[in-house]
Amino acid sequence: MELLFFFLFATVAVLAAVMVVTVRNPVHSVLALILCFFQVACLFVLLRSPFLGIAQLFIYVGAIMIFFLFAVFLLDIKRTIHQERYSRWASFALPAGIIMLVEIVLLLGRGKFGAPVQEQEAVASLLNLGKSTEAIGAVLFTKYLYPFEIISVVLLVAFVGAVVLTVKSKQED
Amino acid sequence: MATSIPMEYYLVLSVILFAIGVVGVISRKNIIIVLMSLELCLNAVNINFVTFSSYLGDMTGRIFAIFTMAVAAAEVAVGLAIAVNLFKVKKSVIVEDANTMKG
Lengths: 173, 103
Fold this sequence. Notes:
The complex is a heterodimer of chains A (173) and B (103). With 173 residues, chain A is an all-alpha fold. Chain A has two domains: 1-75, Four Helix Bundle (Hemerythrin (Met), subunit A) (Up-down Bundle); 116-173, no CATH class. Helices cover 77% and strands 0% of the residues of chain A. Chain A is globular and about 50 Å long. Chain A starts with a helix and ends with a helix. Chain B is mainly alpha-helical. Chain B has a domain at 30-101. Helices cover 76% and strands 0% of the residues of chain B. Chain B is built from three helices and no strands. In chain B, helix 1 runs antiparallel to helix 2 (31-56) and helix 2 (31-56) runs antiparallel to helix 3 (60-90). The mean pLDDT of chain B is 88. Classes of the chains: A mainly alpha (173), B mainly alpha (103). The interface between A and B is large, with 89 and 74 residues.
């Protein structure tokens, strides 16, 4: 049963990802990427980390993709729709992607990944969102407190940088 | 509650999504689509992190997935600001039009 759901989510995710790369209209591309992120959130729930699934929905779908939608609306899509979609390196892209895919899958095939999911106390079951969140918080705010603070500074710098980039160009006009 | 799905399935899915993202980054002209393909790559990496975290019973992978999400958000903020500026300067969202540094 779980395998069935995995294949459902995986197939839709891959199809949506292919649509992102191939579709002509950027708005359709954004919508396909949202669909793909939804499937990945479902896969996170299958992987027994519901907190990350919710975070995926909030951060990727709720924040990042809305960003992208606004950017697509701000920049003119009407002109780009009728232009050639692919750059002149496109003929190298597909072989490069396929070679990479085959190489990594071959490497995976040589490895041994037979380990089953270990249900440690900290990793909660599917039905227990609270416990899983608690476990992540307990590790994040003790062992990884320093990286956590650094990543918050990185985010702050990035957002201040984004504001500076857009405000400065306004003054020049 | 052990899952019946072999670990390789998740890893192969992650590789496929990453490869699609790489193809998109190389082949598309529109800078917004290039950034979106980059997001696809980062998300594939996230699947990898969470898979190993879940199958090895270690929380570290999940923490790193959260860090990856934060970095992705930062990258999108700066990247889209640059894209908007590029559009203001060049009146185009085509990557190949940003060729001032080309000899």
